[in-house]
Amino acid sequence: MIEFRQVSKTYPGSDKPVVEDLSFEVLEGEICVLVGPSGCGKTTSMRMVNRLIEITEGEILIDGEPNTAMSGTQLRRKIGYAIQQIGLFPHRTIADNIGTVPNLLGWDRGRIKSRVDELLDTVGLSPDEYRNRYPAELSGGQQQRVGVARALAADPPIMLMDEPFGAVDPITREGLQDEFLRIQQDIKKTIVFVTHDIDEAIKMGDKIAILKQGGVLAQYDTPENILSEPDSEFVSSFVGGDRVLKRLSLTRVGEMDLEPANGGTDGLLRIDEGLTVKDALSELIGSGHSRAVVEKDGENGLLTFEAIEDLMGGASGEPSNGGESSA
Amino acid sequence: MLYKILEVYARPDFPEKLRQHVLLSLVALLVAIAIAMPVALMIRNSRLGALIAINIGNIGRAVPSLAILALALPFFGIGFGSALVALTALAIPPILINASTGLREVDKGVIDAARGMGLSGGQILARIQLPIAAPVIFAGIRTSAVQTVASATLATFIGGGGLGDLIVEGYSRRGPEILLAGALAVAILAIITEIGFGVLERAFTPKGLKIAQKRRK
Ligand SMILES: Nc1ncnc2c1ncn2[C@@H]1O[C@H](COP(=O)(O)OP(=O)(O)O)[C@@H](O)[C@H]1O
Ligand SMILES: [Mg+2]
């Protein structure tokens, strides 16, 4: 668990804090996304966790201990670190890159080698093909995978990720996000994840901390609650006018309670259970139908506009609230 | 003519002049490395330091070799020592400039990742910055070495000896073959230096960087 306690940061030579009185908790095994406009202090906040940047006021506790209890380098070896620039060591092989922290921690060579191969498998790169290559021989997406593998190498309970999928094209990024979420289901790391992209925040976060200019926490909650109840003008305009649709992207059609489709389903549109409700709705509208069939566990369910409305529930069913008017 | 030149190389005093020339260049280069590298390492994280070093280096490069030799004279007198001081001063700038830019050009993301994973400052220098900057540093040493070998020819003017003696002798005694023999020897020495350090440079370029260089082309 990571706990920010009234953390402030003022850079030397400046009189304005870039992070101000920040307090929140990241629970064990959760991804907490720090999101907000550029320059709002996300990176600074994240880097104070492993003391790449020293705190001006307040403290950060890790499992109840102040993060100043040990030296900065010791602390950082226990915390995974992945960044947008990736920063793979160009003169080292992929195996050496991934083995960096285990090597610092004095693991023996056999253990490092098997860990490297295991991680290459985890991130979807064949160990035999990639372990002896150099970073320059990899595509951008492959380099990002290695960057994540390197951050996971010593199996740290905590990870810091600063726009870790920011340097690749949107399609590759989606793939990497899906893959990382799949990995996270097994490894259950406690993660501080920085992005400026609200869609990425909604997708990746168990919790989202929205920061505004000056490093002030605007709202801290689950993606669902932030989308359904933005508690300020700033948040509702930051999440965007399509926040109702964004909420639909939080659920997959397979997770909905659907009426069984009795009788003939021939000729009806069929929708894959893995699609998000948002994408399903888009298909439904695009097809000109008002209903579609979703096959789940061998049974046919009926997806209708009413079912989608039910999913959105009470509050947001009411047509006029704050979010719409500000958009 | 060729025969006459070869005759000069057979003279009993030739090996001594060659030895002086090589010794003068080598010692000047080593002392220059011993001065320039620690300075470059010290200022590797300071933008101001790098700026000052590079500017001093550039000024040093702009001063003609002969002028520096002449400058050494009033302070260190005539002889080998004086020539050594002057040549060292000449050899420093290319090494300082390259080492300092090479170290500073290491990608910021790479350094940040290294710090973020818990490498100490010394580990980052030894395992990351130096290997990555090695090709640039060696290129500076190569430039400096070739230039020192060439400039050592001028040592004769302040009594430093070396192959320059032959050129001066050939000129004053109207013996073109002596002059040519001296010039040719310096040229060959310079070429050997260039090739030798080129080999070293390639040997010290990590494989991953060679691949990256090739990809960039
Ligand atoms: N090392 C630094 N020295 C001074 N100011 C900095 C430094 N790093 C960042 N800043 C400033 O702090 C603010 C927050 O930066 P940052 O945390 O990088 O924001 P974000 O990651 O949200 O884009 C910016 O205004 C930035 O200019
Ligand atoms: Mg940032």
UniProtKB/TrEMBL annotation, chain A:
- Mind telling me which InterPro entries this protein's record contains? AAA+_ATPase, ABC_transporter-like_ATP-bd, ABC_transporter-like_CS, P-loop_NTPase
Q: Where is the ABC transporter domain?
A: 2-238
EC main group:
translocase
Q: Where are the transmembrane segments?
A: none
User: Is Transmembrane helix set as a keyword in this record?
Assistant: no
Record-listed E.C. numbers = 7.6.2.9
What is a single molecular function from GO for this protein? ABC-type quaternary ammonium compound transporting activity
Asked if the Swiss-Prot or TrEMBL record annotates the protein with the keyword Transport, the reply is yes
Check the record and name the Pfam families matching this protein: ABC_tran (PF00005)
Sorted UniProt keywords: ATP-binding, Nucleotide-binding, Transport
Family, similarity comment: Belongs to the ABC transporter superfamily.
Q: What is this protein called?
A: ABC-type quaternary amine transporter
UniProtKB/TrEMBL annotation, chain B:
UniProt keyword list: Membrane, Transmembrane, Transmembrane helix, Transport
The way it spans or sits in the membrane comes to:
Multi-pass membrane protein
**Mainly localized where?**
membrane
Q: Which GO terms describe its biological process?
A: glycine betaine transport; transmembrane transport
Residues annotated as transmembrane: 22-43, 63-92, 178-200
- Domain ABC transmembrane type-1 as annotated: residue spans: 18-201
In terms of InterPro entries, this protein maps to: ABC_transp_perm/SBD, MetI-like, MetI-like_sf
Subcellular localization(s) per the UniProt record? Cell membrane; Membrane
Which family, according to UniProt? Belongs to the binding-protein-dependent transport system permease family.
Protein name according to UniProt: ABC transporter, permease protein (Cluster 13, osmolytes)
